Hints:
By secondary structure, this protein is mainly β. It has strands spanning 16-19, 22-25, 28-31, 33-35, 41-42, 46-47, 54-62, 68-72.
Amino acid sequence: MGERAGRACSKCGALMDEGFILDNTYGARVQSEWVRGAPELSRLTGVKLKGKEHLPVTTFRCQACGYLESYTSTA
Ligand SMILES: [Zn+2]
């Protein structure tokens, strides 16, 4: 489990490369995260995260057709 190398595209079957979606924010570059529930806006931070489950998102990109498939850690 946890071995993600050699993942095949669910659309065309070609190999997919592991990566992540870059989130450019206020001078910082961070990995996108999945957050449970609907976004609650905050004047200070943009979106409230306090008390919410959030997980970094790993995204695979198909080398042939460009299809993106995203996963969160299940650990
Ligand atoms: Zn593909």
